[in-house]
Amino acid sequence: MSYRVELKRSASKALDAITPQDRRRILEALASLQMIPGLPAVKSWLTGTVGRIRSQNYRVIYEIDDKAKQILVLVIGHRRDVYP
Fold first, then answer.
1. Residue 21: which CATH number?
2. Which residue has the higher pLDDT, 3 or 45?
3. Tens digits of per-residue pLDDT, 60-80?
4. What domain range includes position 57?
5. Could you tell me the pLDDT band of residue 21, with boundaries at 50, 70 and 90?
6. Considering its fold, how many domains does the chain have in total?
7. Would you say 51 and 42 are in contact if contact means Cβ atoms under 8 Å apart?
8. How many whole angstroms separate alpha carbon 77 and alpha carbon 79?
9. By C-alpha distance, which of 49, 73, 70, 44 is closest to 61?
């Protein structure tokens, strides 16, 4: 069963600012995430299921909504900037 991947506006802008080679890697990771959303580094928190993808020096933080079959990408950025 496939999930729909949506990017927040800020995540989409961050993705546009990344080099084409890194952008391609991130998009490939998001495409594979559509098929198996719970696989890579997912933590179940009180607010929902949040996960992360590590793509070399970049991180993608996302939230999974199983009822809506949707993955919402919250943050895309360099690893030094993503974590508070």
1. 3.30.2310.20
2. 3
3. 999 888 888 888 999 999 999
4. 4-82
5. very high
6. 1
7. yes
8. 6
9. 73
